[in-house]
Amino acid sequence: MRSSNAAVTLFFSWQWEVSGTCPSDIPIPPENFTVVIAADVDLSLMADLLKAVALEKPDVVVLNGDIGYNDCNPSAPQLFMNMVDDALGKSLPLFLTKGNHDEYGDNWDRRSGYSELLQARWKQAQNLADFNCQGKWGVNQTCKRQGVAMNFATHGCESCGPAPGCCGSDGWLYACPPERITCNDQCQAGPGFHTNALQNFKGLWRMCFWHKNMHNLQVGGKVDETGYEPYEECLRAGAMIFTGHEHSYERTRSLTSMSKQTVDPEWNSADKLRVKEGTSFVVVGSLGGFNRRPQQRCLPTQYPYGCKGEWAKILSGSHQETTGLGATAVVMRFHVDGNPCKATGNHSYTKSPGRLEPLGHGNRSTATATGTGGTTTDELPGSNIVEAENSSLTSSATGKASAADASHCVAHFLGLLFVFLSLSHHGPS
Question: What radius of gyration do the chain's Cα atoms show?
Fold first, then answer.
């Protein structure tokens, strides 16, 4: 693996853990199990992003759709895979979901397309059995690596194959007449996929990935494309939801209904999120460096936002913070500091050349830890240098907590999945 000149700079960080004694009867991830997620990445930025990702020493990398935007370039999948091999080596586990720019130019299913090259990579690495994967690559695939479950799905597909005559002279695929587009259940996950995949999972950590959105679960101009049922299935399972497609970053509060965007009445904070079976949140993580789009819905562009109060943070082309920004990624680590029920995460952007430079928020946030013996609330001072790996919030069975510089969260495991995320809505998150 080559060394990289690119660096990853923190945009926001969070941390969560199970308070009290970690359950001993659930599967746990390997120590420092790291998942890095990106979407809507311009192919011209891909190499720098992947080299920056390599510095995070990931166990899994997820590209959540629209891999490069070279719709009509048949060599794009191989160019992408060459970049992956160069930055990450030939055996690091890579997962892809199918974006619209990956499928209707026929770069997904054709010979030497993304799907075939991805399968060849896994076959060569000979480590797929470690993830117990089932289903079709990027379409209705579920993988479980000890205590982490990951669903990779396509919802709202646009084509099962090539769309003849739709490529422009500049190599871009334009909107095609309906008669040229075919889509069926072989191209996307069907009803019940997420429920069936997660219903018997005993682990604590669950994630759902797909590319497209519903209009009310993004803040740009995207129309309804997926239906609400995939969101509701993951919510009922207590799974974090990651989408892309809109070329902006937005995060909801804790929601008890995705179709109605109902904020959890028992946990309506913008700074802290709760996830359990029946409550979840959505991250539209598609600041991949390609065509950053402005915020069109739920104005104003600064907190507190409009609509139903469901949005906790929005970062788009309307925000000065995104000017000159490289591709971004979300980095999640599970089983940290020797605690199998503790995890950390950060949202980062690539900076080249340079080194790993954490970016502080310079504000104050509040972390609330609830243990079996009571509640302790600490105000956490902001810092110009925030290192997610060094920040901590430790909650014991007595409910006492201690905190360092960053936003945090605490989770309880009391028969169901509970995750309390604490994120500052003042800094970019």
Answer: 20
Q: Which CATH architecture has domain 31-341?
A: 4-Layer Sandwich (3.60)
Strands 282-285 and 311-315: unpaired
pLDDT tens digits, one per residue of 169-181: 666 665 565 555 5
Q: Where are the beta strands (DSSP E) in 82-201?
A: 94-97, 140-145, 148-153
Widest pairwise Cα distance in the chain: 67
Helix (H, G, I), strand (E, B) or coil at 402: strand
Give the separation between CA 344 and CA 331, rounded to whole angstroms: 8
One-letter amino acid identity for 212?
K
Burial of 290 (0-12, 13-18, 19+ CB in 10 A): buried
Distance CA 237, CA 189 (A): 17
- Give the model confidence (pLDDT) of 192-213 as tens digits: 999 999 998 988 889 999 999 9
Tell me how long the chain is: 429
Q: What is the pTM of this model?
A: 0.81
Query: Rounded distance, CA 250 to CA 284, Å?
Result: 5
Residue 224: alpha-carbon gap to chain centroid: 20
β-pairing, 205-209 vs 240-243, is parallel
